[in-house]
Every structure is written in C-alpha cells, then in structure tokens.
Write a structure and sequence with these properties.
The protein is built from 5 helices and 14 strands. The chain has a 5-stranded antiparallel β-sheet with strand order 12-1-2-13-14, covered by helices on one side. Strands 5-6-9-10-11 form a 5-stranded antiparallel β-sheet, with helices on one face. A hairpin with a 7-residue loop joins strand 9 and strand 10.
Length: 341
C-alpha cells in the first residue's frame, strides 16, 4: 500500500507520497480470530473437493505482506510542454509487465514524444495515460483469457493526476482507477481547490474528515443490523401498552413500523482549512504533514508497515516545469580501502 495526497490551491497543485513498496501475496487465513474458515453447504457440512481436501471460502483469501522495500518512485511526470504540465502519484500494484509504474509513465512520455502527440488539457493526458496503463494491466493479468468470475478479484492500480492544461481555465485533478477504467474529476466546485487522498489513508482521513471509512462502514453496518430488531421491539412494546390500556387488538393484526435508515452527518465536521488561499509553501507543509502522519502511525501499528520511507513532494504551477522538492541523488558510501585520492 501507499499514501497519495493532492492539494489544489489558487496558485499551485502539490502532490505527496511515501516511498515504500510492499511485496503482497494472497494468503488463506481460515482460523484467524478463532474462527473456523472452512466452507460449508446450506446444511452446515464441510465441503470436500475431488481429492478429499476440505475447501476454504474465497472470502478467507486475504492480501498478506511478505516484504517491504524503500526507495520506490511513486511520483512522476506524465506530460509537459510550454503550456501543459501534468504529474501523478500512484497506489496499488507496483509493477506492470515487468517494469515499475514509474517506468510505465516514462514509456508513455517517450511514446507521445515519438508520435509528436500534443495534449492541451489535463483530462486528455489523464485519459490517455489511463488507457495506456489499462493495456499494460490487462497484459500483466492475461485479462482477455481470465475467467469472468476471477476478474472482480484482480488488483488495481490507482493514480491521482493533476496539473494545468493550455485549454483549462483552472487547475485540474483527477482520480484514476485502472481496474474500473474510471476517471473522476476532483474539486468540481467554483474554487477548484481542496485536498484528496488515495491508497492507505485512514489516519489522514480521520484528521481531515473526523472519521475514516472503516468507522463509517462499521457504524452503518451496526445501525442497519439493529433497525429490524428495534422495529420489532417497538411494535411489541406498543401492542403491550395498548393491551394494558384496555384496547382490544384484532386477532392477526400486524404493526407495520417503517424501516427507515437516516444517513449520519459524517462530513459535517471536516477540518476548516481554506485550501484555495493557502500559499504554496503552506500547501507543501500540509502535504508533508499528511504523508508523515500516515507513515508515522504505520510505524507503531501492528504488522508490517506498508507506508513509510522518504516523503516525496512535487509542485505544479501554471507556466512552470513540474518540480520535485529536495530529491536525493544516488550515491555510495564505501569507496574501497585504497589510500589514494
């Protein structure tokens, strides 16, 4: 996993990400938390395959991190000329067709240069890159020959792409899902400003929104599970009170209590930040804070940290080249044992 951040202000788009790359394998964990994970039929009998082995439900197959490396390049330029500049950060699969996602982006740039392709909008660049990545993704997974029932379980590659186009009145930021072939514009309101995040961003979401999606899903599931039993208890209590009051309830009469579920105001208490008017340095500082927050909390969480390493920050401004800040150069420290200069 990874953390991706984008902040758009009136003056700039600032991207941020971490630099850890995880080796993830699909593992069967049928007995986690004391649960019996073997698949069973409608009568509760364990299912046995043709070789006499007990069967595990596909729901028990989960991603399992086996190793982590630092130094992954998750931020890269997609397209740039004198009038249009678009860059992106990525989460999800780290390689496609034997090369890193950064190399996929590099090949995209070289192909456009060789074909003399000119883009004049951020959306056009993002759409073309999504199609390019989708082709590599399908080739990697042998999508054309894969059984239909396996396709919903294929891993995704996600991007946050942003920048300035010659034909764009303001900056533009898009979220891309290669698996779903979806391109979703962010910050569609008048100021075209705000923040969005991708990858593993639960602590970032808690800070900015007040809750993360796990809390929303957990509370929503609990409320929905309690709706029907609570309605039954209310109906029973109401009927009993009528009987105690001497009201004769006709035989077979059923109380119909509507099962209404009210959406809770999850997004009414987001952090009050004036993203539009943030100076670029403030936006850089905030992106740095958010990436480091997710990385820092991962360091102390149970299991293998899948977010961390060096924090990368990149800045896009209209009419200027995309720049990544304070990027390190490759070096080596052990120069040998000779005393010669």
């Amino acid at each position: 996993m990874t953390i991706n951040i984008a902040i758009a202000t009136y003056d700039a788009i600032v991207l941020g990400c971490d630099s850890l790359s995880s080796i993830v394998e699909q593992a069967v964990l049928p007995f986690r938390n004391g649960q019996d994970g073997f698949a069973r039929d409608a009568e509760g009998n364990e299912l046995i395959d043709a070789f006499g082995n007990r069967v595990v439900s596909v729901a028990q197959v989960q991603p399992f991190v086996t190793n982590v490396f630092g130094g992954a390049q998750k931020m890269f330029l997609l397209y740039e000329d004198d009038d249009t500049s678009v860059a992106a950060v990525t989460a999800g699969m780290a390689t496609l067709s034997g090369v890193t996602i950064a190399s996929v982006a590099s090949r995209f740039r070289k192909k456009n240069a060789a074909d003399a392709v000119v883009y004049t909008s951020v959306e056009a660049v993002s759409k073309a890159f999504m199609d390019h990545a989708r082709h590599e993704w399908e080739r990697q997974l042998n999508y054309a020959n894969a059984p239909e029932e396996q396709r919903p379980y294929f891993p995704d590659v996600q991007f946050i792409a942003g920048g300035y186009g010659r034909d764009d009145e303001t900056s533009k930021v898009f979220k891309i899902s290669v698996c779903n072939s979806s391109l979703e514009e962010q910050f569609v309101w008048q100021t075209r400003s705000g923040t969005c995040f991708g990858g593993q961003a639960d602590f970032v979401e808690r800070l900015l929104v007040g809750v993360d999606q796990r809390i929303v899903n957990g509370v929503t599931f609990r409320l929905m599970a309690e709706t029907a039993p609570r309605g039954a208890r209310l109906a029973s209590s109401f009927a009993e009170q009528l009987r105690l009051a001497g009201v004769q309830i006709p035989e077979g009469f059923q109380f119909d209590i509507p099962q209404e579920f009210v959406e809770l105001p999850w997004h009414d208490y987001v952090a009050n930040i004036d993203f539009a008017n943030l100076p670029t340095q403030y936006a850089v500082d905030l992106v740095e804070l958010l990436v480091n927050l997710q990385s820092g909390m991962q360091r102390f969480a149970n299991g293998v940290a899948t977010v961390g390493g060096r924090t990368h920050v990149g800045v896009l401004k209209r009419g200027e080249k995309f720049v990544m800040l304070n990027e390190p150069k490759l070096h080596h420290n052990h120069t040998g044992y000779s005393h010669d200069l």
